[in-house]
Amino acid sequence: MSRQSVTLTLPDWINDVVDWQRRYQHDDEKMALAIELSRQNVLRGTGGPFGSAIFDCDSGKLLSVGVNRVMPLHNSSAHGEMVAIMLAEQALQSFSLNADGVKRELFTSCEPCAMCLGGTLWSGVKRLVCAATAEDARAIGFDEGPVFEPSYQYLRDAGVEVVRQVQRSAAAQVLKDYLNHGGTIYNG
Ligand SMILES: [Zn+2]
């Protein structure tokens, strides 16, 4: 057990579900991927019911994906959004996802918690698109932490477009399925 490094990994099945060559043109297909990742993460028992993906806004190129890995990796920071952000930054070898002038967007199957909303701001993405609401997450027992409407306005004022409730019901269903199949609600 190293005291000098930490490792984040995606589950082995990711490449069976993700088509890395595809160009994702519309919000609906981008969100469908984020939700499918959340669904597969539940079905395959590899973490909590949350999935995310980061795209180049204009080309529709997929840069990274993330799923919740909190329990398998013993890492309270390994939320889907943070995993996707860290992998995207690693892929670009940059701490900012707009340093090269390319606009990027984060799609997430559920509205971000306090940590991930902050992480979204620091990542440099220019667009945040969410499916299920914080209320949907709370309804099954997850705590989203101190996220308020002014938090979203802060991102907007910083130049991040925020779009919410895209395919909300499909994403909320994954949350319910997780609960109904006995998934652990941590930090509840
Ligand atoms: Zn989070």
TrEMBL record:
Residues 25-155 form the CMP/dCMP-type deaminase domain. GO terms for molecular function: guanosine deaminase activity. GO terms for biological process: purine nucleoside catabolic process. InterPro entries: CMP_dCMP_dom, Cytidine_deaminase-like. It holds the Pfam family dCMP_cyt_deam_1. Signal peptide: none annotated. PANTHER family: CMP_DCMP-TYPE DEAMINASE DOMAIN-CONTAINING PROTEIN, CYTOSINE DEAMINASE FAMILY MEMBER. This is Zinc-binding CMP/dCMP deaminase.
